[in-house]
Specification:
This protein has ten helices and no strands. With about 190 residues, it is mostly helical. Helix 1 packs across helix 4, helix 4 runs parallel beside helix 7 and helix 5 runs parallel beside helix 9. The C terminus is likely disordered.
């Protein structure tokens, strides 16, 4: 199975790079196959349609987000450390995970992707942060649910991606303030 899963992974990686460079509208399965080093019949065996390939790309990105968030939060025992690590991850995730600017290539695809993935990412954030979200003053006061706070943080992170702040650390400090954390918090991993 290793070789087969490597083939699928190479195809998805090639598709991600092609989307980042040219956008989803110009995604050519022939170009993806060539970039992945596989024949077109091999690509079609794994991903019979363009939509199947786009779904695989989206699924991989969701899995990467979840895994990265778990690692970031898992390095901390205290709820405030977990919340702070999550805020840092949200602000820097898209900057660090995208080597090329997909917004310039295909803004509609990016915005539709955010819309599609937001509910899943809210669930992920609520699940991995759990009670750490009760550190947020609005949640503690009963003005927001944990899911509403998670959605606010995600929307702030998305806005940074769409309209980048010149200094992500300043944005992070502002988000920390909203989360009820010291604006200059420096999370340190436990261990």
């Amino acid at each position: 199975m290793g070789s087969n899963s490597n083939t699928a992974a190479a195809i998805v990686a090639a598709a991600r790079q092609a989307i980042a460079e040219r956008g989803s509208g110009k995604l050519s399965l022939s170009a993806v196959a060539a970039r992945a080093g596989v024949s077109r019949p091999t690509l079609y065996r794994w991903f019979p349609t363009r939509d199947h390939l786009l779904e695989a790309v989206a699924t991989e990105e969701e899995q990467e987000f979840y895994a990265g968030m778990c690692v970031a939060i898992g390095a901390h025992r205290a709820p405030t450390g977990q919340l702070d690590a999550a805020m840092r991850y949200l602000v820097l995730y898209l900057d660090e995970s995208q080597a090329i600017d997909p917004i310039g290539a295909d803004p509609e695809f990016v915005v539709l992707g955010f819309r599609r993935i937001l509910p899943t990412q809210v669930e992920t954030l609520v699940a991995v942060l759990g009670d750490a979200l009760t550190q947020v003053p609005a949640v503690r006061a009963g003005a927001l649910t944990r899911a509403q706070a998670a959605e606010m943080f995600l929307r702030l992170a998305y806005s940074h991606y769409l309209l980048p702040h010149p200094d992500p650390e300043v944005l992070l400090a502002n988000i920390r303030g909203f989360a009820g954390l010291p604006q200059n918090a420096a999370t340190r991993a436990v261990g």
